[in-house]
Amino acid sequence: MVDNVRPPGFEPIIEAVDVVKTYDTGRLQVQALRGVDLTINRGEMVAIMGPSGCGKTTLLNCLSGLDEVDSGRISVEGVDLSTMSDDKKTEHRAKRMGFVFQFYNLLPVLSAVENVELPLLVSGVSAKDARKKAMDALEVVHLTDWATHKPAELSGGQRQRVTIARALVNNPAIVWGDEPTGDLDSTNAAGTGRRPGARA
Predict the structure, then answer these.
(1) Residue 75 phi/psi, 5° resolution?
(2) Which distant-in-sequence residues (6+ apart) come within 8 Å of 2 by Cβ?
(3) What angle do CA 190, 117, 122 make, to 5 degrees?
(4) Cα–Cα nearest to 183, from 103, 89, 95
(5) Is the CA virtual torsion 173, 135, 114, 125 positive or negative?
(6) Residues 74, 12 contacting (CB under 8 angstroms)
(7) Which residue, 67, 81, 109, 170, shows the most beta carbons closer than 10 Å to its own?
(8) At a CB cut-off of 8 Å and minimum separation 6, what does 135 contact?
(9) What DSSP character marks residue 70?
(10) Residues of the chain below pLDDT 70
(11) Nearest to 130 by CA among 88, 99, 165
């Protein structure tokens, strides 16, 4: 039996209803998402697991508004993504979301601290405040001594920690992670998992 009674204070932050996403390679069509239904409540931490190629990254991209769906509905913080312009989606991601990508997505010409402060600057935070918050975030992941180093001067694990600091620097409502601790050693992976504010 499934209990569908919503408890007091129930507040879904992400809702997906019958979401379908198909990729057309030219020779064949690959249905990456087939009628996905998903509800995530505010404060929940959710892990989506499965073999490579099963659609995990596609689902993340669609739920965050990085990619369009073919059919179905996705709401984030009560707003239907299909009603938002590309600019509004970009603004919402900058202010309300943090991303930890599998392959870092750090800008190679920027230092670690510059990469971390970038989402704050995009959101309109002053340069002075953005730098302070970025340094505080790097301190959490034990990288203040590497703040002025560029990604090419960092190890894989250090780059991943910069990415995590960047994802959390604006205290987002939602943090998306695509294999977020894959390049970390067990100590740092466990420590990062306990970071307050890391949530779905």
Answers:
(1) -120, 135
(2) none
(3) 125
(4) 103
(5) positive
(6) no
(7) 170
(8) 113, 144, 147
(9) S
(10) 1-10, 180-200
(11) 165
Type of residue numbered 127: A
Which of 60, 120, 129, 70 shows the shortest CA–CA distance to 96?
120
CB-CB contact of 117 with 194 (8 Å)? no
Q: Using one digit for the tens of pLDDT, what is the confidence trace for 94-140?
A: 889 999 877 778 999 999 999 999 989 988 899 999 999 999 999 99
Question: Which tokens belong to 116?
Answer: 């971390």
Q: Rounded to whole angstroms, how far apart are CA atoms 142 and 47?
A: 25
| Contact predicate 15/41, CB 8 Å | no
For the chain, how are helix, strand and coil distributed in percent, rounded to 5? 35, 20, 40
pTM summary value: 0.75
Cβ atoms of residues 112 and 138 within 8 Å: yes
Contact 161, 106 (CB under 8 A): no
